[in-house]
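Input sequence (94 aa), recorded before submission:
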Amino acid sequence: MNGTAPDVVPALGVVAQTSRLRLCAGWNLIALPGLATGLTVQSLMAGTGAQRVMGFDPAGPYHVRDLNGGDAIVEWTGYWVLVPRDVEWTVPGW
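Predicted structure, token format:
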């Protein structure tokens, strides 16, 4: 493609109903795309057995903080997830 002015190019494709995210024992840095909505830290912990989930906090030490179960998982945002063992997380709507 060779564009000389701003424009929009529609892209068509098939979006999977679910996807699997492989997490290794220990800390994992994850982010979900914009199609994964309605997830909470609690659903992530239930689906993976995670012991801790940390998210961005501009005022926190190292700019992260522990998240609560009711906190939303926001698409296009990074999270640190601590799991005790290797696990595959099936993410709906991704």
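Checked by second reader. The chain has a mean pLDDT of 85.
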